[in-house]
Amino acid sequence: MLGAPAALAEQMAGLTHGSLGVMIADDMDLIEASQALRYRVFYEEMAAKPTPEMAQNQRDFDAFDPYTDHLLVLDKSLGDGPESVVGTYRLLRREPAMRAGQFYSVNEYDISALTALDSEILELGRSCVAEAYRTRHVMELLWRGIAAYVFHYDIAFMFGCASLPGNDLDELALPLSYLYHNHLAPPEICPVALPEHYQSMNRIPADQINRKAGLSAVPPLIKGYLRLGGVIGDGAVIDPQFNTTDVCLIVETSRVTDRYYKHYARRAGEG
Predict the structure, then answer these.
(1) In a domain, 1, yes or no
(2) Which residue(s) pair with 249 in the sheet?
(3) Are the CB atoms for 121 and 96 separated by under 8 Å?
(4) Structural domain boundaries enclosing 68
(5) CA angle 156, 162, 163 (to 5 degrees)
(6) pLDDT number for residue 256
(7) CATH number of the domain enclosing 233
(8) DSSP characters for the chain?
(9) Does residue 56 belong to any structural domain of this protein?
(10) What pTM was computed for the model?
(11) Which of 47, 70, 179, 269 has minimal Cβ neighbours within 10 Å of its Cβ?
């Protein structure tokens, strides 16, 4: 999808920090720039395995891209076009997902508890930031952009797959077990990994886990979701293409912590 409604675009135009700004991609050049950034991060930096077509084009893309909104962080000091894209998040609402045939997460998780809700839901994915821009300011802009988007579309739940590095479940036993014992979603909204992909996250008994060490072992992006009141679905999924182990995260927007979400929402509203 291209561009945001005028009111949302205007609101996002006020979300800036120095030369950095945030927007929904409104032309194919910007979308292709976000796909190129994804390729550099996922396939060159993190050593995921591209398809031959991806490798030829040096872009990460799939069948969901035409149906999603591409949230971008731009550095205007680099220019006014595609060269300015330094961060991206892919946003997929219910109606576009139905036109696409499904949500992306359906490939790994049973999310019927979420899709059965009457309220609007939003799938987040394909998040990445250029190496030189992995700072608090860039992540804050991404979250402020998401906050503006959530309020504009009256989103009740955000969800999506987030990754831990590697496919070795023994090496990931501490963060997976910590998440399972401390942040498991309530049954009424809990996604469950599909039987053919399900890997138990309960690998270390709760009484043997040092909570501080467990949280420290969790990747920063997942910690960010936890600070926003996020909870975790049941079961991990190994992704050999990306050399990661995925968990499903859910954030109920009405229950996120005052310290983070309402701060970003207030700042977004001032824009």
Answers:
(1) no
(2) 160, 232
(3) no
(4) 6-270
(5) 175
(6) 63
(7) 3.40.630.30
(8) -----HHHHHHHHT-EETTEEEEE--SHHHHHHHHHHHHIIIIIIS-----HHHHHHT----TTGGGSEEEEEEEGGG-SSGGGEEEEEEEEEHHHHHHHTS-GGGGTEE-HHHHTSSSEEEEEEEEEE-GGG-SHHHHHHHHHHHHHHHHHHTEEEEEEEEEEE-S-TTTTHHHHHHHHHHHBPPTTT--EE-TTT-B-S--S-GGG--HHHHHHTS-HHHHHHHHTT-EE-B-BEEETTTTEEEEEEEEETTSS-IIIIIHHHHHHHH-
(9) yes
(10) 0.91
(11) 47
The tokens for 180 are: 């399972």
Q: What is the pLDDT of residue 162?
A: 93
Structural domain count of the chain: 1
Is 128 a member of any domain?
A: yes
Q: Which of 101, 122, 77 is nearest to 228 (CA)?
A: 122
Give the CA-trace dihedral at 206, 207, 208, 210, to 10 degrees: 80
Classify residue 61: in a domain, yes or no.
Answer: yes
List the pLDDT tens digit at each of the 271 positions of the chain: 788 899 999 999 999 999 999 999 999 999 999 999 999 999 999 889 999 999 999 999 999 999 999 999 999 999 999 999 999 999 999 999 999 999 999 999 999 999 999 999 999 999 999 999 999 889 889 988 998 999 899 999 999 999 999 999 999 999 999 999 999 999 999 999 999 999 999 999 999 999 999 999 999 889 988 988 899 999 999 999 889 999 999 999 876 644 455 554 554 444 3
